[in-house]
Amino acid sequence: MRVIDCSGDPQQIGECTGEALRLEIAEHIELFPMQRWQEFDARLPDFLEALQRHLPQVLEEIRATARGAGVEEREILRLNLPLFAAGLDPDTSGCTNFVFSGGRDGPLWGKNNDGCEPHRPVVARYVRSTEGIPQVTFTFAGLLAITDGMNADGASGLHADRRPPAGKLDAHQRWHFLDRALGAGDGPPPDVDVSAGCGGADAVPQPGAAGTDLEFARTLLHHHGDVVSLCRHGEPLGYHSEYSMIGMSASCRLLFCDIHPCEQEYQGLVVQ
To answer: Is there a smaller number of Cβ atoms within 10 Å at the N or the C end of the chain?
Structure first.
């Protein structure tokens, strides 16, 4: 996974991002060519107006990223404003998040970000803004609209599983699995269940003597089962794990890797 370091105001951060990720941004654009420019151009004025009114610094950074990458501004804008076939939710969302409130490693969170092929280029940005707290975010090259990460105060933000209709069974199976693994209960209540026996008969990992620590987080993120897998290799629904992260809020330490965590060594850094 590419890790880049950017600092300054929104314009400087955007230009730095674009210049550092020229190849990755070009790859992202080429992987997902726009087929609906007319529809996009009709929506673009509202998108720009909303950004200018509510998030002018984000708009400035997006435009600077396009300049730095040497691509048309609307190419970066359309990566951040995808058009879906119906409604607002795509049919390729299936990420897994969990949080431990405490343990010998302090509060921590884990996530495998899942998606379908073709896989977009994943990057980590260490951003030191003149207008905010240093932070590290993980996303796809050219995107600001979707990020996961943590800042130097240990505060974290993760984008969540949207549970599209085709993925509800799979999402609830993982929900049951994590409830059982973390001792939080038996899964979702009956009124939101989608299938009898949801969760299957997979053996569920349990914390060791040290409790919900870093090692147990790794165990969950690496899990493969007959019914539920948190590290995904194509089943169900064609999902693969695209990147994996563990954040330790007390120490502001991040561990991360791309593609399947069971096959990779985690890189690490401290946000400060």
So the answer is: C
- The structure tokens listed for 223 are 């899990």
3-state SS string over 67-90? HHHCCCHHHHHHHHCCCCCCCCCC
Segments of the chain assigned E as strands? 2-8, 96-100, 108-115, 122-129, 135-140, 148-151, 156-157, 240-248, 253-258, 267-270
Given a contact cutoff of 8 angstroms between Cβ atoms, the answer to whether 68 and 16 are in contact is yes
pLDDT tens across 99-136, in order? 998 889 999 999 999 888 888 999 999 999 998 999 99
Closest to 3 (Cα-Cα) out of 102, 149, 107, 133: 149
Q: At 143, is the secondary structure helix, strand, or coil?
A: coil
CA 75 to CA 56: how far, in whole Å?
A: 18
Query: Which one, of 33, 264, 256, lies nearest residue 147 by Cα?
Result: 256
E-assigned strand segments in 118-205: 122-129, 135-140, 148-151, 156-157
Q: Which amino acid is at 96?
A: T
Tokens for 32, please give them. Answer: 């997902």
Architecture (CATH level 2) of domain 96-270: 4-Layer Sandwich (3.60)
Read off the tokens for 15. Answer: 């230009």
| Closest alpha carbon to 151 in 129, 172, 173 | 129
- Alpha-carbon distance of 58 to 144, in angstroms, equals 8
Q: Report domain extents, the chain.
A: 9-80, 96-270
Q: Is the per-residue pLDDT at 90 higher than 50?
A: no
- Strand duo 253-258 + 122-129: pairing: unpaired
Judge whether 224 and 202 are in contact, CB under 8 Å: no
Instruction: Find the distance separating the first CA and the last CA of the chain, reported in whole Å.
Output: 20
